[in-house]
Design brief:
The chain has 356 residues and is of the alpha+beta class. It has helices spanning 2-24, 130-134, 144-153, 171-175, 272-278, 311-320, 348-355, and strands spanning 31-37, 44-50, 60-70, 73-78, 83-100, 112-117, 122-128, 161-164, 181-191, 198-199, 204-205, 210-216, 219-222, 233-242, 249-256, 263-271, 280-286, 294-302.
Length: 356
C-alpha cells in the first residue's frame, strides 16, 4: 500500500498543508512545494489498541502506534523572495486514531473512515537551506518549531481527515462532531519545585520562574510566570473541548523561564476518561521526569446538554466563581457550521489587475 499512501500524502501536502502555511504569515503567501517524494521506506505500525468499552455499537475505534523514519526528498520555495529550501529526512512517531463509522448492513460494511492524531506527534524534520528560509524579511521570528506546529496541528484533534466510503453517509457530522464534553482545568499551585536559576557560575543555587503549558489535543494554554518562587500560586482556570474519549489526555509541562532556553520542571499526563468518571478531581499530583515537585489541580467534567433547561442554575453557579478566569467561565457552547456561500460579488479590482 505504501506507494498509494505516498500519493495520498502528496495530495495532503499540496491541498491542505500548503494553503495552511500560506495563510500563517503574509510573507509566506507565495509558498509552494516544488517536489514531494516521501521515500521508499514504509511507515511501521508498532501496535494496535481496539476499544470495546464506552464505544458506540455502530463504530470501531483503533489506536495505531505509528513510526516513520524515511529518507524523504521535499523541496519548497517562496517565489516572492526567490528563496528555496528542502527536507531530506522526516521522522514521525505518535498515536493515530482510526474510526470506522457508521457500520452498515451493506458492503463495504463501513460508511466512512476518519484519521487523526490524539495529540501532536513527535515530528523531526532534517532541513536543507532552512537558514535561507528564515532570513526572509518578516520570517526571522519564525522558527523550526513553528513550522512543525503548522504541519502537525493540521492532523491533530479537532482536525481530522474523513473519507466517505458510501454516498449516503452524513460526512459533515463525522468531520465536525459535537464535542463529548468540556474539561474545566483549575491550575492552582505547585510545591517544592526544582531551583534552576544559578549564580556565580553554578556555585550558588537560586529559585525558578515557573509557568505551565497545558494541552488537550491541539488546544494549548500558557499560565502566567511567577518570579523567583519554588511554591508558585497561579489560581488560573482554562476550559478545553474534549472530542474523543477514551484516549485523550490532559498534558501539563512546567518550565522555568530563562532569557535563553527555558528549563524543564516536570510533566503530568491525566487520562480524561478518569475525570469524566469522577466528575470532579481536586488533588495534588506528583510531577514526572523530575526528582521532586508536585502540582495542585482541580478538574471538572462538564457534560453538554441539548436544551437550556438548566441554564439559570449554571449561570448562578459560575457567577459565584467569576473571578477565577480572566475571560469568565462558560455557561454554554455555541457550535457554528459554515456550510456554503452563493452569489458572492466579483472582485473587480482583481480583474482590473489581471486585465492590465
Amino acid at each position: 500500500m505504501w506507494p498509494f499512501i505516498c500519493q495520498f500524502i502528496e495530495k495532503l501536502f499540496r491541498e491542505t498543508i500548503e494553503p495552511a502555511v500560506r495563510g500563517a504569515n503574509n510573507h509566506l503567501s507565495t509558498f509552494s512545494f516544488t517536489k514531494i517524494d516521501i521515500g521508499h521506506q514504509p511507515l511501521r505500525i508498532n501496535g494496535v489498541k481496539v476499544y470495546t468499552e464506552n464505544v458506540d455499537k455502530r463504530q470501531i475505534i483503533l489506536d495505531l502506534q505509528i513510526s516513520f523514519v524515511g529518507n524523504s526528498e521535499i523541496d519548497l520555495e517562496i517565489k516572492r523572495y526567490f528563496c528555496r529550501a528542502g527536507v531530506k529526512s522526516i521522522q514521525i512517531h505518535g498515536t493515530m486514531r482510526v474510526i470506522l463509522e457508521p457500520l452498515i448492513g451493506d458492503m463495504p460494511l463501513i460508511g466512512a473512515l476518519s484519521l487523526f492524531f490524539l495529540r501532536k506527534p513527535l515530528l523531526e524534520i532534517n532541513w536543507t537551506g532552512l537558514t535561507n528560509l528564515l532570513d526572509v524579511p518578516g520570517l526571522n521570528g519564525l522558527s523550526d518549531t513553528i513550522i512543525l506546529d503548522i504541519i502537525s496541528n493540521y492532523l491533530v484533534l479537532p482536525n481530522r481527515i474523513t473519507v466517505p466510503l458510501v454516498s449516503e453517509v452524513q460526512i459533515a457530522q463525522l468531520r465536525f462532531p459535537i464535542p463529548k464534553g468540556v474539561v474545566r482545568i483549575h491550575f492552582i499551585e505547585a510545591q517544592d519545585l526544582e531551583g534552576k536559576d544559578t549564580y556565580l557560575k553554578g556555585i550558588v543555587k537560586g529559585k525558578s520562574d515557573p509557568y505551565g503549558i497545558i494541552r488537550v489535543g491541539n488546544q494549548i494554554f500558557q499560565s502566567k510566570v511567577i518570579k523567583e518562587n519554588l511554591n508558585p500560586k497561579w489560581n488560573e482556570v482554562y476550559e478545553a473541548l474534549v472530542y474523543e474519549h477514551p484516549g485523550q489526555e490532559l498534558e501539563i509541562e512546567l518550565f522555568d523561564e530563562d532569557p535563553d532556553k527555558d528549563d524543564f520542571l516536570g510533566s503530568l499526563m491525566i487520562d480524561l476518561i478518569e475525570v469524566e468518571k469522577e466528575r470532579l478531581l481536586d488533588e495534588w499530583f506528583t510531577l514526572d521526569e523530575v526528582s521532586k515537585g508536585k502540582l495542585h489541580l482541580k478538574l471538572e467534567w462538564l457534560t453538554l446538554m441539548p436544551t437550556a433547561e438548566n441554564l439559570d442554575k449554571v449561570l448562578t453557579s459560575i457567577r459565584a466563581d467569576k473571578d477565577q478566569a480572566n475571560d469568565g467561565l462558560s455557561s454554554a457552547l455555541l457550535i457554528l457550521y459554515l456550510d456554503s456561500a452563493r452569489n458572492l460579488p466579483v472582485s473587480y479590482i482583481l480583474m482590473d489587475t489581471l486585465l492590465s
